[in-house]
Amino acid sequence: FTPCDDPYVTVVGGTTLSTFSNAWASETVWNIGFQGNNAWNSLGYWGSSGGISTTYSIPSWQTNVNMTANLGSTTFRNVPDVALVADNIIVVYGGGNQGISGGDSAGTALWAGFMALVNQQAVANGRPTLGFLNPTIYALAQGPNYNNLFHDITTGNNFWPSSPSRFPAVPGYDLCTGWGTPIGVNLI
Length: 188
What we know:
Layout: E1 12-20, E2 23-29, E3 31-34, E4 45-47, E5 51-57, E6 76-79, E7 82-85, E8 89-93, E9 97-101, H1 104-124, H2 134-141, H3 146-149, E10 150-151, E11 181-182, H4 184-187
Parallel strand pairs: 1-7
Antiparallel strand pairs: 1-2, 3-4, 5-6, 8-9, 10-11
């Protein structure tokens, strides 16, 4: 999976979001299973990315994460780091055309937009913009305010026939949704 498993990249997993009265209600790992073969995914299985790097050693900021329940590695880089919605996203493109999209790549674009809001707020407060974020994400997630900063995704998995038992969502960090999804202004 290089370069997406690169320790200097913030890897984003995907979720399916449920709302009630336009407010967050719950999320689960995005895993819609077999969708037929196509140009984007020749295997035809659609779901959150995640797993263990075969290239990069575990970075220092991941060494304090308990990898027992999530089936992660204590010697190699684990991904993803965070997650965002990857299902039923309305996309406007090409001069006003609209369509429904999804996937980890859509969640990654949403994370980039969220980071732009973080940088905008930093500048407004006279602070520098963000740089390399992963050590900060892990420090915040392992601190006392974790549940005020992230929605912890604890249901679902990214199982598929070639990997029928790896990896489940678990409380805290997992290899489907990382630390989970941001709780908007709290994480900003």
